[in-house]
Specification:
The structure holds 2 protein chains of 2 kinds. By secondary structure, chain A is mostly helical. Chain A is built from 12 helices and no strands. Chain A has a single domain, classed as ABC transporter involved in vitamin B12 uptake, BtuC. In chain B, helix 3 crosses helix 4. The radius of gyration of chain B is 18 Å and the shape is globular. The chains are: A mainly alpha, B alpha/beta. At the A-B interface, helix 7, helix 8, helix 10 and helix 11 of A face loops of B.
Chain lengths: 265, 250
């Protein structure tokens, strides 16, 4: 069944959606949207490096995304505001990455494939990496769920309950880097943040608890992946952006429903 | 035996020392209020007690196995985070529904279990925070400016609730507040802090202590009376406690 490229693409999209949903909820709750975006942009430098040194793209992107996220976390609150730091780091990493790619004369790389994803070219081994990474992210988040949630609400509350909120922040950072690295092939660095934020935001108006919000976000993300790929096939549109378009349309619909429900009171 | 003993505690952030050689202790069942102007290190002291701030010198000793309930200063729940009161209360403690209901009852808000946190009023929200702290039957409650955002009758009612909680559960309470006149009437002991312990004792003793008056002025002579508060006075004292005491006196 893995022989069909559409099947592999669908499985890849659903895998990314599962990892991105719970993580995306934290990104939304903690107002880290720009953080996710910046980490993803920086990953293009990782792509360039891994092509230079002939490593797997996953490893290179993971390393740079992690490095970027850790640097920003460390530097935050030391003179520059978080969004300034992110703007500097993310766009310089993106620019350096693009310049570095241009030096690679031997191989001709399709830059678009990394910026917007190349989900239709997902191989069996890509699929293994994507599902492996996604499983790791989901396990991390499920394992630390209560602590992550407490640390999101209030740092002191976390300390008083006997654990260090900074460690929880690190776990989220790690999960974010893994998600970015596995999602490059699927939606590309420019649209990863969309897969994090849009399903989670769309789930908000339907959810009554943090857990249900994560589950609904996963369902919305998976639906977007399946329907987006189908639409790309039928209308001959680029796959990654089509997935994000479906997610955005679902967001608009659910928000309108939520809005109407609220205005009744 | 003391529940918590603070010994010769100093806390600094970089070159800035906010607490110097602080000693204090809390006995079972007693209500201790820490008062002090802005920047006097009240919050740093509380953070050191819960372990969120590492002391640069000295130490905080807790009775072994001490159960602490913590009520944070402010808790911002992002509107994108849906969470019911019940789920919130069970976040850090394994608790039965019954425990939640009892804790809410003790905190004076019995019927909120199924409500969304985002729908609560300021007063209800503070009481839910209090209920959450009570759920594992703590031996000591720590309250950090717990009435911020409540109006004066609201915070007076909140402090009466705290006294009821002590009556009912027998737990000790440390609270820090800037609302001197309301807080002090509920306290067994007051510690006046300004980087160091300026003075300490029963509310009446502290209110008449020269160190306290230097920090807060004589206008708070009505410190023991609920609701009484004058805004139309000025202070022209000269004291080495620094400029912020002038602001705090207003």
């Amino acid at each position: 069944m893995f022989d069909d490229f559409m099947t592999r693409a669908t499985l890849a999209g659903v895998g990314v959606a599962f990892a991105a949903a719970p993580l995306g909820c934290f990104v939304v709750w903690r107002r880290m949207a720009y953080f996710g975006d910046a980490t993803a942009h920086a990953a293009i430098l990782g792509v360039a490096l891994s092509l230079t040194f002939q490593m797997s793209v996953f490893t290179g992107a993971l390393a740079v995304a992690l490095l970027m996220a850790l640097t920003v976390t460390l530097l935050a609150g030391r003179g520059y505001a978080m969004d300034t730091l992110l703007g500097v780091m993310a766009h310089s990493a993106l620019a350096f990455g693009l310049v570095a790619v241009s030096f690679l004369s031997g191989v001709r790389i399709d830059l678009m494939a990394y910026l917007f994803g190349d989900i239709l070219a997902v191989s069996r081994s890509d699929l293994a990496v994507i599902w492996g990474g996604a499983a790791l992210v989901v396990i991390l988040i499920v394992w630390r769920w209560s602590q992550l949630l407490t640390a999101t609400l209030n740092e002191e509350l976390a300390y008083a309950s006997g654990f260090d909120p900074k460690r929880e922040q690190l776990i989220l950072t790690l999960a974010l880097a893994i998600t970015v690295a596995v999602a490059i092939k699927v939606v590309g660095v420019l649209l990863i943040a969309a897969m994090l934020i849009i399903p989670a935001a769309a789930a908000r108006s339907l959810a009554r608890s943090p857990e249900s919000m994560a589950l609904i976000a996963a369902a919305i993300g998976a639906t977007s992946a399946v329907a987006g790929l189908r639409a790309a096939y039928v209308f001959d549109t680029p796959a990654g952006p089509s997935i994000v378009c479906v997610a955005a349309i679902l967001f608009a619909c659910f928000s309108l429903i939520g809005w109407q429900r609220h205005s009744k009171y | 035996m003391n529940l918590i003993t603070v010994e010769d505690l100093s806390v600094s952030y970089g070159a800035n020392t906010v607490l110097k050689h602080v000693n204090m202790g809390v006995e079972p069942g007693e209500i201790v209020t820490i008062v002090g102007p802005n920047g006097s290190g009240k919050t740093s002291l509380l953070r050191a007690i819960i372990g969120a701030t590492r002391p640069s010198a000295g130490q905080v000793k807790r009775k072994p196995g001490l159960k602490i309930g913590y009520v944070p200063q402010k808790l911002h729940i992002d509107p994108t985070l849906p969470i019911t009161v019940e789920r919130f209360m069970r976040l850090t403690h394994r608790a039965s529904k019954n425990d939640c209901t009892n804790a809410l009852e003790t905190a004076g808000v019995p019927d909120l279990l199924k409500r969304q946190m985002s729908q609560l009023s300021g007063g209800q929200f503070q009481r839910v925070l209090l209920a959450r702290a009570l759920i594992n039957r703590p031996e000591i409650l720590l309250l950090d400016e717990a009435t911020q955002g409540l109006d004066q009758p609201g915070s007076a009612a909140f402090y009466r609730q705290i006294e009821d909680v002590r009556q009912e559960t027998g737990c000790a309470i440390i609270m820090i507040s800037h609302e001197l006149h309301v807080v002090m009437s509920a306290s067994d002991r007051v510690i006046c802090l300004n980087g160091h312990v300026c003075c300490e004792g029963s509310p009446a003793v502290v209110a008449s202590a020269p160190e306290y008056r230097a920090l807060f002025g004589t206008g708070t002579g009505g410190a023991l009376a609920l609701y009484r508060h004058d805004h139309d006075h000025h202070h022209d004292h000269d004291h080495d406690h620094g400029a912020e005491s002038q602001e705090a006196a207003e």
